[in-house]
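Training component of the fellowship. As part of building independent skills, the fellow (R.M.) carried out the full modelling exercise for a liganded target. The chosen ligand was iron/sulfur cluster. The inputs are recorded below so that the supervisory panel can assess the work.
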Amino acid sequence: MAKKVKFKLDGREIEADEGRLVIDAAKDAGVNIPHYCYHPALGNPGNCRMCVVEVAGAPKPQVSCRTPVREGLDVKTESEPIKRARAAMLELHLVNHPLDCPVCDQAGECGLQNYYMEIGQYQSQVRENKDHKGKRIEVGPHVMLDQERCILCTRCTRFVDNVTKTHELGIFRRGHSERVELTPGLILDNAYSGNVVDVCPVGALTDRDFRYKVRVWYLDETDSICTGCSRGCNISVHTNTKRPWHNDGKRVARLKPRHNHDVNGHWMCDDGRYGIGALDSGRLGRVLKLTPERRDASWESAAEEIAKALKAGGVAFVASGMLSNEDWAAAKELFAGAKLYFCPEPDQIGVEDDFLRRREKVPNLKGAEALGLKSGSFDELARDLESGKVKTLYVVERDLAKIWGAERAKALIAKAAFRVYQGPNKNELSESFDFRLPATAYVEESGHFTNFEGKVQAYCKALEPIGQARPDAEIFRLIAAAAPAARREVAA
Ligand code: SF4
Ligand code: SF4
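Fellow's submitted model of the complex:
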């Protein structure tokens, strides 16, 4: 454990670990020192010079991202000489910057814009024309580069050099011509490329998926957990409900990683980040009875009919690790005595790497395991359907066509006497059931997932559900509550 020392910060006595960087110790004490190049996960080259502070006894301002705390250190972050030094540094960063904030997608969350408003020297002393560099350069499938806006902080190049070790970006040329460019022969298409947009403190690297859809000040942020795999990366869901006509009418505008040292650090993968299409398209919003003819149904009538079928036995329950811990607990009760099938088949298995991505492309298989639930194999389910052993087939958020192929899956589903499909989205075979029940997407409910390491993490409701959609656990409880009525009818 590091030794604790006392030092002075703007006249206040602060206790911190010896050797901790002044910029971090100040942040812990509630003092944010302006900076661009420093990033806790990417190191401290000290090239932006924005984090200068006055240190008693030092002949000139010191960069706080390279100054370790020691006993008796006396640091001033807001003295007049420091304010002047910062304003001068900012002016240098803006010498060739186009100042195109009104049309820049970073506006509202830009380090340059924010510090300019806070500490900028509004009357520039620069009379020379600005250097022009490349604009709208597609450096990869997800990222756009504007070289004129770049302040050469090197955060992005340090990310591809030290985190992904893929080296697609570099700082090339010399002097005023220096700029971020693609390494010859490479494009920025690694599995974590979106993170360079997050680390870029200005509008030089922007997200092609998000650009120009909605201004960031219209967005709300909600803490959540990525459902893209069993890692359970902590994320922030950015929703746009104030201006629905922006962002192509989509309610979820983007996902951003949320720092969690023990799970995902500062990062998330591109599969998780850009897999938001299904949250607003292909959604189910109505309770439907599809046989003998298609018609709307109420939750209550559907629950009663389903409860009756479940009571008759011969039930196969198909689900996936998309269910929350709360859903699994409610399912365990409702489907006691039924055969369960939730293991990942090729439909939910993907690429794994030695960074974040996990093989199981669902967030919560561990939650089922923790409740002692066991999955049968889909070969066994196919055999039981074929032989007529399955009377009621209840499928939650699973596309059986992706497991057995569309034709075979359709034929097997038809073998069950009673069939229910429940989920947030339609799929190829969701019309091949007797009932189709709309469930909420994870952004429309609160709950918990248990990640592959057994860590239980909460996610919060960011949006109101679409149409009649309800959380899976609520649907299971509604059917369970309808069971006594169904029983009475059977007895009569
Ligand atoms: S593109 Fe952004 S992150 Fe990369 S060096 Fe320029 S300002 Fe820094
Ligand atoms: S690694 Fe997994 S949990 Fe993390 S962002 Fe990617 S898909 Fe989501």
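The panel noted the following from the submitted structure. The first strand starts at residue 4 and ends at 9. The CA atoms of residues 104 and 203 lie 6 Å apart.
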